[in-house]
Amino acid sequence: MVGKAYACIKIAGRANFAASPDFKTLLNELAQKGFGHFIIDLSECVLMDSTFLGVLAGFGMKLNPNGAPSERGIELHCASSRVSDLLENLGAAHLFKSTSGPLQFPEEVKPCTPESINPTHEQIARTSLEAHQTLMAMNPENVVRFKDVTQFLAEDLKNLEKAS
Q1: Per-residue model confidence as pLDDT tens digits over 69-104
Q2: In a domain, 93, yes or no
Q3: Does any domain span residue 153?
Q4: Domain residues for 28?
């Protein structure tokens, strides 16, 4: 849903690497249209993996380079304790404002349904690599966690690029 000053995106089910390219594209398209405040409704999100979180964190850092939530930024609504723990453990919680309770929209909103870009294996690998590099740059403790993952993704991406 979109309003004058914000966009609300509902994440249902698993927020994972496969959904990350579409999510990243949607966020960037909305930002290009002038939206600066994003409400991410996580009330039906059962799981968030590190790739999805890396995309979310990267976008949060882009909106607020100083690293603190403001009127421009991302509000995470009804994040589960599992998702909240992941945000905290990977050092990304400070990028987001957390809210709970019923969503209150201050203005008339209209629904919009984004189209999938049907990401290729190469797009998924690139998005995953960039997301993990973001997490490592954001928090030095993540380097140990994701060093092997990023090495694997970089090699996978190189092989996919050679094959195409």
Answers
A1: 556 789 999 999 999 999 999 999 989 989 998 877
A2: yes
A3: no
A4: 6-117
